[in-house]
Design a protein that fits this description.
- Two copies of one chain form a homodimer.
- By secondary structure, chain A is α/β, with parallel strands linked by helices.
- Helices cover about 40% and strands about 15% of the residues of chain A.
- Chain A has 15 helices and 13 strands.
- In chain A, the strands form two sheets. Chain A has a six-stranded mixed beta sheet, sandwiched between helices.
- The first copy, chain A, is globular.
- Chain A starts with 10 loop residues before the first strand and ends in a 7-residue tail after the last helix.
- At the A-B interface, strand 1, strand 7, helix 7, helix 10 and strand 10 of A face strand 1, strand 8, helix 7, strand 11 and helix 13 of B.
- Strand 7 of chain A pairs antiparallel with strand 8 of chain B.
Chain lengths: ~450, ~450
């Protein structure tokens, strides 16, 4: 197997959880399928959030938005299968959306596009498959099938009634119109067929996940998508994130290490325990890292907890246990490089935020499977988890504010997450260092140390 | 409250100090399917995987119980549904197997039992479900459905014709009898039913994995099992394992670090390239770690390679770049503790073999998905991968022999793996240290250093 010389030095980093080499892998077009109010947009957004977090550039193309741009919504009549004029408009929108997919893949370095539309007719799906084949894209269908009227009514109440389409309607009008809309689609809906579609790659999700049919998974990314979709659920629950109580190293402005809690840190742990009790949370799971400070914090809660090595703080390698002043003194160049690209920068003999995300992926997967969970962790770790839950970019992630002695309560709602910050009124040092103005390797120490937080 | 250690994937591991998690019920995996549908293949492979990730698992193969009870197999007539006497024996065997499952769970710390039998009647499955409910075990069915006569003929040739049942028959006789055996089962086979069995937890595998139906995954371990089963395949291929060429630190008897290759190491890399070319491997994927010595080795191959951080050598923490003599001098107690339990021992500020296994799990998963792969890695990493591929225990794993300058070619065959050791005839130091006789912390330096390999 001789290869042209230029490829001898070809080297692809396969360390992220995505493991999707950049240049030889065809982009993937995920095609949602299903009647309205079956959770397609919910799945599209959640899946996209997950893929972007693990490092696979992904974007949703929602046909409803394209349609709203060209036509202001009057009533369900727009969706009648015999409405020729509307059909033309809808076909044009689909074309435009797919054109934008092409731009996303060819010019914007996208790797996965999620085409969020009903795609309920065989004809529409056949045309998408040819389009994809012509362009060299892989296609993976995600069909959501639901016949439970309660779930559908809930979906409509959660996200449809408040949609831009129904801005000027009251709730009952909106509900009645939307149900008629669904009926329009039902007339021409042909689900993916066991026999006729046996060569397509797809997953069928029945009744919000009690059952799945998976056909012809063709590659790694499709396998990861299937695994993720099979682990998410919609049961109401809350995720609590907190750092350990203030540690002795925090007091000294030192990073990393494995120190115990300061007296104020112990106070916080007690306060956290009280807060948790007051929330009367059903079946709360508590997770900590393997480091003393999170374990000591959890000990005060009086609840069994599980220790995850994956939740350990970012390894600062040669900078472990140093103050920022010491880092500037001993490793000024490294210090600047980190400020230039805090997400990708890896401490010598340590880790990067990017490494952390990869290491946290199984934690996120298990968080998805669970219901009420309290995660007691560390600053960098919490930033990574928060970025996943709140869909923050890798540029924002390393600068997310996660102060000590503050619990975050995240509750999934509609397509996102409601966040409540609960400061438990126990003083602590600030450990947040903003990006300084000058990130040049040639900067002076004062410029480098401008944004470091105070410490003893 | 007691703390439970959880691996990176959320599975509770019992370290000697912690109390076993009383809330996790054991899981009974029940295979379902006609003969020659790959049930034993799946049972063994799944067990191998679960044990490797730290979930104690055991296969209970009904055929073995039957062979012990009936001593010599005559012909397919034993399996006729109207053979009352045989039916009694077969029922008794099933009962004995389930009794052994109870012992495995209650007295041998087992967590997963795989009941490898046809379980093709509804009646049999109902009785297993009641049995489990009574004992508090979770049940997960794995049904293998195959109607491709070529696959079945292949299976029969590979594993049935050479089974103990046919020890005195020639191949054609065995084949003919086995086909009649399958017909006996077909008469009473009732597959898991979409409607009637909708409350059971199961995965149906169609035609060796082109299609899966997954119903009611109850918990984390079932979700992992489903993910694993959906990633394995039976396409013939080979896995090549090699360490990097001899490194500069190897020559000095120092562990860890990130040094480049020695001159002999470079020679090996070239020889490896020659060997690989000589194998004429179709679409070979090459994986390395992020460390110089594996990358430099792969560079000589002239093939594109992918770098995995997960393949980095075990982190020896405070012992990085020390010789064994240095370790004995500076950390004699740690040195002894490591000899006492090499698998679980974690270097201060470093990792254990157990940590390594968890970090390598995504590599194993991707190895299962792939076909021909060459993994260029490190001694401890290679031991972990080899233990998975060859079903070695946690006790054997840290002492597996993985010498420098030797390629291992592993080819799946029947229920296991054929291994070929290929020494490429380039001299290298030995880096294998056997467990010394005295592992007590009170031992003297000579006893500790007795088994260290020579170095410059």
């Amino acid at each position: 197997m001789e290869l042209p010389n230029m490829e001898y030095m070809m080297r692809r980093r396969c360390d992220s959880a995505a493991s999707v080499p950049q240049f030889t892998n065809s982009p993937t077009l995920i095609v949602m399928v299903g009647l309205p109010a079956r959770g397609k947009t919910y799945i599209s957004k959640k899946l996209t959030r997950y893929l972007n977090w693990i490092g696979v550039p992904t974007k949703v193309f929602n046909l409803g938005q394209y349609r709203r741009e060209v036509q202001s919504y009057k009533s369900f009549e727009f969706f009648r299968p015999d409405n020729e004029e509307a059909m033309q408009i809808r076909k044009a929108c689909a074309s435009n959306a797919l054109k934008d997919v092409v731009i996303y893949f060819s010019k914007e370095h996208g790797q996965v596009a999620v085409f969020d539309a009903t795609n309920t007719t065989r004809e529409r799906r056949v045309s998408i498959v040819s389009f994809a084949k012509e362009k060299g894209y892989k296609v993976f269908f995600v069909e959501s099938i639901c016949d439970d009227p309660d779930i559908i009514a809930q979906n409509i109440a959660d996200v449809k009634v408040s949609s831009p389409d129904y801005l000027n309607c009251d709730k009952e009008e909106a509900l009645a119109d939307f149900l008629k809309r669904i009926e329009c689609y039902k007339q021409t809906y042909v689900p993916l067929d066991d026999e006729k579609d046996r060569r397509l790659s797809y997953i069928k999700i029945f009744n919000v996940g009690s059952r799945y049919l998976v056909n012809c998974v063709r590659d790694h990314i499709q396998s990861r998508i299937v695994y993720y979709l099979m682990n998410i659920h919609v049961t109401p629950r809350s995720i609590y994130l907190s750092r350990h109580g203030e540690s002795n190293m925090n007091l000294l402005g030192r990073i990393g290490g494995d120190s115990g809690l300061s007296p104020r840190g112990h106070k916080y742990a007690t306060a956290l325990g009280t807060f948790i009790k007051s929330q009367h949370i059903k079946d709360l799971k508590v997770w900590t890292s393997h480091m003393k400070r999170t374990i000591q914090t959890a000990e005060h809660l009086g609840i069994p907890y599980e220790q995850w090595k994956a939740l350990n703080e970012i390894d600062a390698g040669v900078c472990e246990e140093m103050t920022y002043e010491e880092i500037q003194d001993n490793h000024p160049e490294e210090f600047a490089l980190r400020d230039q690209d805090k997400y990708r920068y890896r401490y010598p003999k340590g880790e990067s935020y990017e490494d952390l995300v990869h290491r946290l992926e199984p934690v996120i997967m298990e968080l998805e499977r669970q219901e009420n969970v309290l995660v007691v962790c560390h600053q960098a770790v919490m930033r990574c988890l928060l970025a996943y839950l709140l869909d923050k970019t890798s540029d924002e992630l390393p600068y997310l504010k996660c102060p000590l002695h503050t619990a975050l309560k995240l509750t999934p709602v509609a397509y996102g997450c409601k966040v409540e910050h609960v400061f438990l009124n126990i003083e602590a040092v600030n450990t947040h260092r903003e990006r300084p103005g000058n990130v040049d390797v040639s900067r002076d120490p004062e410029e480098a140390l401008k944004t470091i937080p105070d410490h003893f």
